[in-house]
Write a structure and sequence with these properties.
The chain has 4 helices and no strands. With 89 residues, it is mainly alpha-helical.
Length: 89
């Protein structure tokens, strides 16, 4: 497919993709920033909730699933409240 179809995969380095497709580089930067932000939130949760790290590491799949559902639910509520408060200003 296309003029580059015959090129080996080794040709498509990070620099090539970033140069040839600036939008892909932009998306990659956004993805990296989101990962960093999510990691900071995760670290904050580990600090705020005693025993959470131990339960995630040593807990059953059901424990981890329940924790994940709780965090997902709570984050959805938090986002809704933040959006509501920002509209009121």
């Amino acid at each position: 497919m296309g003029e580059l179809a015959e090129e080996p995969e080794e040709v498509f380095t990070y620099e090539y993709v970033a140069f040839a497709h600036p939008f892909l580089l932009f998306c990659q930067i956004l993805h990296y920033r989101r990962q960093r932000r999510e990691h900071r939130v995760f670290d904050a949760l580990l600090q705020m909730i005693p025993g959470l790290e131990d339960r995630l590491i040593n807990g059953s799949e059901e424990d981890v699933g329940a924790i994940s559902e709780s965090v997902s639910y709570a984050s959805g509520i938090a986002i809704t409240l933040l959006n509501f408060n920002s509209r009121r200003r």
